[in-house]
Amino acid sequence: MKACVLRASDYGKMKKLFLDVFSNEPWFDKWDEKQLDLYMKDLTENNNSLSIAMYDETEELIGCSLGYVFNWWEGREYFIKEFFISRRKQGQGEGSTFLDLMDDILRDKDIKHILLSTEKTVPAYHFYQKNKFSVLDDSVFLVKKIPE
Q1: pTM
Q2: Which residues form the N-acetyltransferase domain (predicted)?
Q3: Of 107, 93, 82, whose CA–CA distance to 6 is shortest?
């Protein structure tokens, strides 16, 4: 396994992998092609975007972390917006391996913290806790729906 910044030539494979993962259990997202393309561009084409990929021994793309780097008073932070592993590889330790491999990339970019948000009712919540992420007791994630 190896992790590196997502190759531009693998952008289409990344979109396909994302769609396969999040269109199935437990999320069942219903992406149309236009919204998916807009979302992927939002995640990958900003000055502070950081897209990291994991490839298996045959160079097949099997996972991605899509997010942003922000500067903070404690140093640089990487906010993961999307983290996904091929459904064929889930539950086999590949996600944990990917997070470990990402540490070296992030350390080289002088990033001090990884932040993310997830739902407590999905398996990802326990996966992140198992991989040394902790819930911040004094922080909450808030949302406001804009009235139509």
Answers
A1: 0.91
A2: 1-147
A3: 82
Which DSSP string do the residues of 16-59 spell out, in sequence order? Answer: HHHHHHHTSTTT-----HHHHHHHHHHHHSSTTEEEEEEE-TT-
CA–CA separation, 133 vs 127, rounded Å?
Answer: 9
Domains and CATH numbers, the chain: 2-130 (3.40.630.30)
Tokens of 58: 């045959």
CA distance 101 to 98: 5
Look up residue 82 and give its two tokens. 């999307």
Rg (CA), the chain: 15
Report the pLDDT value the prediction gives residue 7, as an integer from 0 to 100. 92
Summarize pLDDT for 26-40 with one digit per residue, the tens: 889 999 999 999 999
Cis peptide before 26 (omega within 30 of 0): yes
Residue type, 111: I
In contact, 42 and 29? CB cutoff 8 Å: no
DSSP 8-state class, residue 87: T
For the beta carbon of residue 21, count every other beta carbon within 10 angstroms.
20
